[in-house]
Amino acid sequence: MIAKTFFGFEEILARELQQLGAQDVEQGTRAVSFKGDKGFMYKANLSLRTALKILKPIYHFRAFNEQSLYKGIQGIDWSKYLNANQTFVIDTTIHSDHFKHSQFVSQKAKDAIVDQFRAKFDQRPSIDKDFPDLRINIHIDRDQCSVALDTSGASLHHRGYRTATNIAPINEVLAAGMLLLSGWDGNSDFLDPMCGSGTILAEAAMIACNIPANINRKEFAFEKWNDWDNDLFDQIIDALMKRTKEFRYTITGYDKAPSAVQKAKDNLLNANLEDYVTISQANFFDTKKETAGPLHMVFNPPYGERLDIDLERFYRELGDTLKNNYPNTNAWFITANLEALKFVGLRPSRKIKLFNGSLEARLVKYEMYEGSKRTKFQQKTEE
Predict the structure, then answer these.
(1) How many whole angstroms separate alpha carbon 89 and alpha carbon 2?
(2) What is the number of alpha carbons within 13 Å of residue 155 lying toward its C-beta?
(3) Three-state SS for 281?
(4) Does 163 have pLDDT greater than 60?
(5) Number of H helices and number of E strands within the chain?
(6) Are 139 and 52 contacting, i.e. CB atoms less than 8 angstroms apart?
(7) How far apart (Å, rounded) are the C-alpha atoms in residues 179 and 184?
(8) What does the pLDDT look like over 274-323, one tens digit per residue?
(9) 174 pLDDT above the threshold of 80
C-alpha cells in the first residue's frame, strides 16, 4: 500500500507506520510505501496522523498513448472490485510527455471500465463524483501507469470533529505533523497561544492520550467495498481503544477572539476531548507562563495572508512575550512569511521546511531557558 502525505512528513509517517506494525516501509516523495493485510489497511486509516490517503495498488503497466492506456485498464478484471449497479470515480495524476491532461486519462480509463462491463453483463456502473462506491487512483510517471484503489475516500485530514472553523484554519494532518516534528509526546504541559478553532489542541490531546486520529470520522471508502468486513473493523477499533493512555499534564489554548474560543470549545466537544483541554479568551502578548515545569508550545500565528496585521510589530511582540514571560519553554510555530521571522529578535534553534497549502513555510523552534542562555550553558559546563 501507499500512504500519501505532505512534503517534509515522510520520515515521521514512516515511523508511524513502523510503530503500527507495517512491513517493508519505504519512504518516497510525499509518500511512504508499506505492506500489510486488510486489517492493517483498516488500522492505518484509523490511526495514522500524518497520512492524507491510503492507496492500495492493484495493477501496473506501460502506457505511452491512448490505445495502450485503454488496453492496460481493460487488463484489470473490474468485476472483482465493482458491480454493474454501483458507482465509481477516477482521480488521475500525470508526470508524462505522453499524456498532457489528467481529465483525458480519467475519461479514457472510464471508457475502458464501462466497455468491459457492457461486454460482460450488458450493464454498466455509473460515475458519481461526490459519493462513489469505488474511488480509483491512476498515477502516470513517464510511461509507467499505476492503478490503485483509494481506501480512504475523502482526505484523511477530515477527522470528523471540526464543524466550526475560523478565517484561516490549519489542516489537521499539518497540525499533527508539526506536533510530531516538535517532539510532542504528552510528557509535559502544552500551550497553543493562538488556538483559532482548536485544531492543534485536538491533535495534541489525541497524541498525548494515544487516541486514533480518525476515530471520530464518519466513513472510509473501504466500507463500500465488496470485501468489507464490519466485524474485523470493530475488533480493530476495540484493540486501538485499549491502547489509549491517561494524560497527567495540562493542555491549554488561548485566543483573543471570543468567536474562536467558542468554535474551539465546540470542536473539542465533538472530538470528546473537552476533559483534556482548557480554552480561555486571552491575548497571548498579555499572558505569562502559568505552569511550573517545562512547557511545550506549538502554534500557527497569522502570516498576513488572510488576516490584516502589522507584521513587524506582531512578530516583535511575539519574540518579546516569549523572551520575557515564558521561561523553560520550547516554542514552535509555523510561518509562511519568512521575512517576518527577522522581527522576532530571537535565534531559532531549528528550522524545518514545510508547505501550508501552496505556501512554502518554516516550522521554527525557539528554546526559552530559565534565566539567560549563558547561565544555562555555564551550569552545564560546571556539571
Answers:
(1) 19
(2) 11
(3) strand
(4) yes
(5) 10, 15
(6) no
(7) 5
(8) 999 999 999 999 999 999 999 999 999 976 545 567 888 999 999 999 99
(9) yes
Q: Are 229 and 38 in contact (CB under 8 A)?
A: yes
Q: Over the range 221-255, which residues count as b (16 or more CB within 10 Å of their CB) and which as e?
A: bbbbbeeeeeeebeebeeebeeeeeebebebbbbb
Q: Cell numbers of 40, please?
A: 492493517
3-class state of residue 14 by DSSP:
helix
To 10 degrees, the CA torsion angle through 280, 207, 42, 175? 60
The residue behind cell 523572551 is: 323
The residue with cell 473539542 is 268
C-alpha cell at 138: 491512476
Amino acid (one-letter) located at 116: Q
pLDDT digits (tens, 9 = 90+) for 328-376: 999 999 999 888 899 999 999 999 999 988 889 999 999 999 875 545 5
Nearest C-alpha neighbor of 46 from the set 285, 232, 174, 251: 232
